[in-house]
Design brief:
This protein is of the alpha+beta class. It has 16 helices and 24 strands. Strands 15-14-13-12-11-10-23-24 form an 8-stranded mixed β-sheet. It has a 7-stranded mixed β-sheet with strand order 16-17-18-19-20-21-22, covered by helices on one side. It has a 4-stranded antiparallel β-sheet with strand order 3-2-6-7, covered by helices on one side. A hairpin with a 2-residue loop joins β2 and β3. The radius of gyration is 24 Å and the shape is globular. Bound molecules: fe (ii) ion (2 copies). One fe (ii) ion binds next to loops.
C-alpha cells in the first residue's frame, strides 16, 4: 500500500445505529419513550429469551409471528443476552426509575385527579419527575401530563454514551427484525463507540464518495490495532460512479422503495421519508445511496413511524442535507415526542417544524403541510403531515399512511388547494394493533378486543378512491406498502395476493385505470419525468 493511496468506504458497508445494543428507532431517543421501551420491551424480550431460547428460535420461523417479540439468534448466545440484560439494568438504572415514575404518575392521576384543582397533586408527582411535567385536564376533566421535553434532554436521562455504531458488510436483504433482536458484537462487525451527533459519522459516510488515506481514516474512526484488518476490509480504491443530476426543465421523481421518493427540478432536490437500500447484487433492481445528489435541499418527513424516520439512513446522508422539514408534535405528550428534538439531539442542523396548512416557499417551489388523519390507533399524536409539493404548474401530494377516516377533510382541502396532478398514497389497511408499537407507553392493561380495534391502518379502497376523486388526480401511485425485501427488518410484512392491502389497492388501481387515471402500485424502483407541457408522463422506467 503506497502512502498516497486513497480509499473509499465500500457501498455495501452497513451502519446500524444502536442504543444499549438495540437498534435505534425514533422512540429510543427521547428519554421518556426510551425508558418505557427499555423496561416494557427490551428487558421483557430478553427475560423471555433467557427462559426459553428455543421458543424464540421456533417463533421467528413462523410466518404468523412475524414482527413479534422474539429474538432472532437461533436459540444461541443466551449468556451474551444475559450479560446485556445485566449491563442495561446497571448502566440504565436511572431510566428504569424514570419508567417506573411515569407509571406511578399515571396511577396517581387516575386515582386522585377527579376534576378538582391539580395544584395539590404536584406534591404527589414522583420525585424524579417533579419539574419535568405539567399536569392538565382536558375540558371533560380527563387528567394527563405533558413532559417538558427540551429540559429532559438536558438531564442525565439523555445519555449519549449509550449510543454506538455497528459497521458490517451487507450482501443481501436478510436482517433480524429491528424491534426484537439486539445487535451483539461479532468478528465481522466493527463496533464504534461514538454518539450519533459526532462529526465522525459525517466523515465516515463522506468516505463513500470522497476518499482519504489509510492514516486519515484510522485516526478519524479511532481504529485500534485489533480492528485494523476488519476496517481495511470495508475500504476500496474503486471510485463510485458519479451521480448525474436531472437538468431538464420539468420534474423528475424517482421511487427508492416504500415511502422514499427523490424529486429533482430546476436544480432543487427533495427527498421524502429517506429509507435506502445499500448497493449489492440482487434480483430486484433498486436505487441506492449511490443514486443521491451531492446535496439535498430538503428532506421531508411525514410522520414518526420507524419506516418513515430511519436513523440508519438519516445519519448516513446527514452531511448532504441542507434542511429537514418535520411535522410539529403536540408538545410533550408521551406518545408524541418532538421529531425536531429527536433529530437535533442526534446532530442534525436546520430542522424546521411545520404546522397543518403551513407553507414553505423557495423560488417556484411551494411545500404545504396538510392534515394527516388516522393510522395512529386513535392516540393524540400531532407529528404527522401529508406534503403537497407545487413546482410551477405541477402538484404532487405525498399522503403517506394518511387514513381517510373523515372524507370531509379532503373536501375542505380541495376547496383550499384545488386539484392535484399526482397522488402518492399508502394503503396498508391491515395495520398492527395499538400495542405493537405503543404498548410500552400504555400503563394500564388494555383489553385484547379493544387493542385489536385500534390499528395503525392506512386507507382502504373506498377511502383511497375518495381522495383520488376529491382532487381529480391524473395519476395515483400506491406506495409505502413495506413490500421491498430490504425493508423486512423494519416492517416484517409478507403479503400474498389475498392480503387485504393488496386486494384493496388492486381495486383502486383498476378503478383509476377505468377512469383514464394513470395508476400503479410502486415496487422496487421507478422513474417518472414530468415535462412542463403538456403530457403528464413522458417516460417511465421500472
Ligand atoms: Fe405509519
Ligand atoms: Fe408506514
Amino acid at each position: 500500500m503506497s502512502k498516497d493511496q486513497v480509499f473509499y468506504l465500500r457501498q455495501n458497508v452497513q451502519l446500524e445505529p444502536l442504543i444499549d445494543h438495540w437498534y435505534a428507532w425514533p422512540h429510543l431517543i427521547p428519554p421518556a419513550t426510551a425508558a418505557r421501551n427499555i423496561t416494557e420491551r427490551h428487558l421483557k424480550i430478553m427475560d423471555s429469551y433467557i427462559n426459553g431460547p428455543q421458543i424464540h428460535a421456533a417463533a421467528v420461523k413462523n410466518p404468523k409471528l412475524l414482527g413479534g417479540p422474539f429474538i432472532d439468534l437461533g436459540g444461541k448466545r443466551v449468556d451474551e443476552i444475559r450479560a446485556l440484560r445485566e449491563k442495561i439494568k446497571r448502566d440504565r438504572a436511572h431510566l428504569l426509575e424514570l419508567s417506573a415514575a411515569i407509571q406511578s404518575l399515571d396511577v396517581m392521576l387516575r386515582e386522585n385527579a377527579k376534576g378538582f384543582s391539580l395544584q395539590p397533586l404536584y406534591q404527589k408527582v414522583p420525585g424524579i419527575l417533579r419539574g419535568y411535567v405539567e399536569l392538565a385536564y382536558d375540558l371533560n376533566n380527563h387528567p394527563s401530563f405533558r413532559i417538558v421535553e427540551p429540559l429532559l434532554y438536558r438531564s442525565k436521562y439523555y445519555d449519549r454514551s449509550q449510543q454506538s455504531l455497528m459497521l458490517s458488510s451487507i450482501t443481501n436483504d436478510d436482517r433480524p427484525f429491528m424491534l426484537s433482536t439486539p445487535r451483539l458484537e461479532s468478528g465481522d462487525s466493527l463496533h464504534l463507540r461514538v454518539s450519533f451527533d459526532d462529526s465522525v459519522v459525517d466523515e465516515l459516510f463522506r468516505l463513500k464518495t470522497e476518499p482519504k488515506s489509510w492514516e486519515e481514516i484510522r485516526e478519524m474512526a479511532q481504529v485500534i490495532p485489533e480492528q485494523e484488518e476488519l476496517m481495511r476490509s470495508f475500504l476500496t480504491t474503486e471510485a463510485p460512479p458519479r451521480y448525474e443530476p436531472y437538468t431538464g426543465s420539468g420534474v423528475r421523481w424517482r421511487y427508492f422503495g416504500h415511502a422514499c421518493i427523490l424529486i429533482e427540478s430546476q436544480g432543487a432536490s427533495m427527498l421524502f421519508d429517506p429509507v435506502l437500500s445499500y448497493t449489492y447484487d440482487s434480483s430486484i433492481s433498486r436505487y441506492t445511496y449511490l443514486d443521491l445528489p451531492e446535496s439535498i435541499d430538503y428532506v421531508l418527513i411525514t410522520h414518526d413511524h420507524q419506516d418513515h424516520v430511519l436513523m440508519e439512513t438519516l445519519l448516513q446522508i446527514r452531511h448532504k442535507v441542507k434542511n429537514i422539514i418535520v411535522p410539529r408534535s403536540g408538545g410533550g405528550q408521551l406518545q408524541d415526542p418532538s421529531l425536531k428534538l429527536i433529530l437535533e439531539n442526534c446532530g442534525f442542523k436546520n430542522v424546521t417544524e411545520i404546522n397543518e396548512m403551513e407553507e414553505i416557499h423557495a423560488g417556484n417551489l411551494h411545500i404545504t403541510g396538510l392534515p394527516f388523519f388516522g393510522e395512529h390507533a386513535d392516540l393524540d399524536i400531532k407529528s404527522k403531515l401529508a406534503w403537497l409539493v407545487k413546482m410551477g404548474e405541477r402538484s404532487l401530494l405525498f399522503a403517506a399512511d394518511s387514513c381517510n377516516i373523515e372524507p370531509r377533510l379532503y373536501e375542505h382541502l380541495h376547496g383550499h388547494i384545488g386539484d392535484v396532478d399526482a397522488l402518492f398514497l399508502g394503503m396498508e389497511c391491515d395495520g398492527a394493533p395499538l400495542t405493537w408499537l405503543y404498548g410500552p407507553l400504555v400503563t394500564q392493561r388494555i383489553e385484547r378486543v379493544m387493542d385489536e380495534s385500534r390499528r395503525l391502518s392506512g386507507s382502504n379502497y373506498e377511502q383511497g378512491m375518495h381522495i383520488v376523486d376529491c382532487f381529480n388526480c391524473k395519476e395515483a401511485y400506491i406506495y409505502a406498502m413495506g413490500q421491498e425485501p430490504w425493508l423486512n427488518y423494519i416492517m416484517s410484512i409478507k403479503y400474498t395476493d389475498q392480503s387485504r392491502p393488496i386486494m384493496e389497492s388492486n381495486r383502486l388501481i383498476q378503478a383509476c385505470q377505468s377512469k383514464g387515471i394513470v395508476a400503479e402500485r410502486l415496487f422496487g424502483e421507478k422513474e417518472i419525468l414530468m415535462e412542463n407541457e403538456p403530457v403528464p408522463a413522458l417516460c417511465t422506467v421500472g
